[in-house]
Amino acid sequence: MNSLGLCQQLLPCSVPRRSSGACACPVRDSSVANLYSSWSASLWSCQQHKGVKQHKRHKRAQGCAAGLPFREAQHESLITQDLDDDDEPDASSSDIARPEQAGLPDRIGFLGAGKMGEALIRGFLASGVSVPSNISASVRNAERQRALSMLGIQIFGSATDGGAAEIAANSDIIILGVKPHQMDAVLSSLAPHVTTNHLIISIAAGIRISSIENALPDATHVVRVMPNTPCLIREAASAYVLGNHATPLDASRTFALMRSVGVAVTVEERMMDAVTGLSGSGPAYVFLMVEALADGAVASGLPRDKALFLAAQTVAGASRMVLEGGGNGGIAHPALLKDHVTSPAGTTIAGLAELEACGVRSAFMRAVKAASRRSEELT
Ligand SMILES: NC(=O)c1ccc[n+]([C@@H]2O[C@H](COP(=O)([O-])OP(=O)(O)OC[C@H]3O[C@@H](n4cnc5c(N)ncnc54)[C@H](OP(=O)(O)O)[C@@H]3O)[C@@H](O)[C@H]2O)c1
């Protein structure tokens, strides 16, 4: 039995466990920033875990970020970084560099910064993995230019009107943040300015790596990422795929960026449409679910504000139980958690029977499949 009083025979956990679970690092934000720093060759000037050899500090930075509390720690089989058991950071280290001190090297440029781009920018800034002076965005709409400049980042004009050249000149990592149908025009404008020193990260739904690589010079480093909007509050669920010329360092840089705003897993490109249908579009399904649950409570007599609050926290708490309930870093099977809280002839089974009668399970499956299909169509 685990701490939830649940049987541990939930999901077989394929996760190779570290000898100890959560990271003892006292400063989460800085540890992620340091992880990021550590993968850039020139960055060992960043001050962390003072008095330890450079190599050991590098290992600790990795261990620290990948060993951060539960959700990072427990998905080690899903992420790209393998850790040794002796990677634990020194709990006594109190001099981990602040992001500003770390001198984060990569300048990140966004080509298009709408809802998703802005969420990423805000997440990167909130996590400390980057600083405003290292971020720029090509934005064509004057109102958005004003809104984004409030974040202290550098703003350039439309990608197709000189902005792409400016972003290429001022960035190491270029994030393609436009809508899929806007991609061709943006790639054409970017292509003359891309070099093999750039890492191009596309977040566009449905756009294959091959079409990005074909539109850019030979050997361009490309990574395809599917994030989701909770990166705004550093709770994103992201998946990524490396292009043909992406290096292990590119993988590490991508991983560190996406990890700074949530969790990140690698998948094969053929799975990206399913990822898009699930986690890319998923926050909207959950918003709808929270709203509907609250509506039910209002119909049953609860005031709207309390109904929404309780509904949202119920979804968050139940999700947390799935993520944390498996013990030993595994994920609890939701069906077992459900059975555990369903008493004979009780209230919960009465509610569940209604959900089944309404086909809710099938509706969610169909929603994910429809969104995945739509992503395929965008190719
Ligand atoms: N939203 C999500 O939940 C989500 C999740 C995962 C992935 N994505 C992907 O993220 C990408 C962006 O989605 P989004 O929801 O953020 O869309 P969005 O809000 O429409 O953002 C796209 C932005 O790109 C700008 N843009 C278009 N052409 C431009 C150009 N030539 N130069 C500079 N900026 C340009 C648009 O400006 P205008 O306003 O002037 O058109 C807009 O601000 C899409 O490819 C989508 O598939 C989105």
Describe the structure concisely for a colleague:
The protein is an alpha/beta fold and 379 residues long. Helix content is 45%, strand content 10%. An eight-stranded mixed beta sheet has the order 3-2-1-4-5-6-7-8, with helices on both faces.
Write the layout of secondary structure elements.
Elements: H1 28-38, H2 54-66, H3 70-73, H4 99-102, E1 108-111, H5 115-127, E2 135-138, H6 142-149, E3 154-156, H7 163-170, E4 173-176, H8 183-190, E5 199-202, H9 209-215, E6 221-226, E7 236-242, H10 248-259, E8 262-266, H11 272-280, H12 282-299, H13 304-324, H14 334-340, H15 347-357, H16 360-377
Parallel strand pairs: 1-2, 1-4, 2-3, 4-5, 5-6, 7-8
Antiparallel strand pairs: 6-7
Bound molecules: NADP nicotinamide-adenine-dinucleotide phosphate.
NADP nicotinamide-adenine-dinucleotide phosphate binds at residues 112, 114-117, 138-141, 144, 158-160, 163, 177-180, 182, 186, 203-205, 226-229, 280.
